[in-house]
Amino acid sequence: MVWTSYKEQIKQISEKIISVQKPIRIMDAIKHDPQLIEEFKKSKYKKMPKLAKDHYANSKLDYSIPAKIKEFKAINQNIQKVFGKDNDLGNLLTEIVDEYTLVLDMIKHRGQQTFYERSKELYGSPKDPFLSDHNTIFDLGRMLYSILTGIKNTMDIPGGEKDLEAKEVVKRLNRRMNDYFHSDEVLAVLSDGIVADAAAGGDKIKINSNRMFSPRQVDIYEVHEGWVHVGTTLNGRHQPVAKWLSVGPPRCAATQEGLAVLMEIFTFRTSVRRAQRINDRIIAIHKIEEGANLLDIFEYFRTEGYPEEECINNSFRLFRGCHFNGGAAFTKDISYCRGFVENFNFMRSAIRANKPYLIPFLFVGKTHVEDIPLMYHLYQEGIVDFPRYLPPQFQDINGIAVWMSFSTFFNKVDVRRVQNHYNKLFNRDFMIRPH
Q1: Is the residue at 401 inside a domain?
Q2: Are 362 and 234 in contact (CB under 8 A)?
Q3: pLDDT-based confidence at residue 158 (cuts at 50, 70, 90)
Q4: Pairing between β-strand 212-213 and β-strand 187-191 as defined by DSSP bridges
Q5: Tens digit of pLDDT for each residue in 348-368?
């Protein structure tokens, strides 16, 4: 038998994980038949679409679930053989493999209550607290709902007019991607097979060919889909040893989506309406968990002022993989706000601990925020490479360091007293003319 080094063994296990998980496409496996949406439209949004018992069973998979589980079991056995017990890297790889097995069980139970239970295990629930905190994701949702609802109609959004065709968006993004990704070809392409306006996959950004877009959306896609989602994928692919960082199991979803939202905010490209859309999905998922059905959720989005087409898309999005009767949701959409808060808290904690050098490793690949100290240790050991692509704000983190330093003090501010002070000022009747 040919001798292999420790790094070679890590690489081999990584490549095996990538190979075995490759055909597992969660979103493809749980999407709804377009006929259900048409049925809903024809009823004028009054009748629940009929989801046949074999609806998801008829959505054929390109793999055998039992066979895949067997393959992942073999990988786990190899991990134990190479790393033994109580090895942090071995434990991480085992957790990743176990999570893919859980994904397969979730897909196996599409349309059943178990699907929702697995979704909660993988992505969480609005009822979950943030890492090491007592506040829940739904607590954030309610607070943001109150604030965002109060200001959404008082702010104009420059660049918010949807007057760009999809092909123009593709052209603009390709220019920007060419400037940012200096060592790789990253392409924006037209697609008529996605539900969202845009989606990143591998080294491509798919743009929905059936939609119109605003200049602000182009700015957002540049950092959200490009710098973060494509960027972390390519940073993972360029790892000579830690190849597993190029693919993201659900445990990475909150960190990745939160990082994308963080970049929208750091670059001042987001908007109140976009934040409201993300937040309203948290509210809606909580409603579904409490028993709201598809009709209830559609009406919720409609009462919030969304166009009918967006109400439909949002509603069906949250019921992917589920029945429509309430009590079961696909909970992935809590990832955006959850990840934003947890990433922000991580960066703030790193600055307070005098460890700013950890922060760029958020971009090392598809990883979870709690893995970052381990990633840095693996970097020191020569197992993980420093991220190839980093946004400007993370290449020189002086600005982030100062921001996080001040934000630490904000926790000590008595917000209610300050708010009361300014409310008196805001509501004051000013006398500026002589009597």
Answers
A1: no
A2: no
A3: low
A4: unpaired
A5: 999 999 999 999 999 999 999
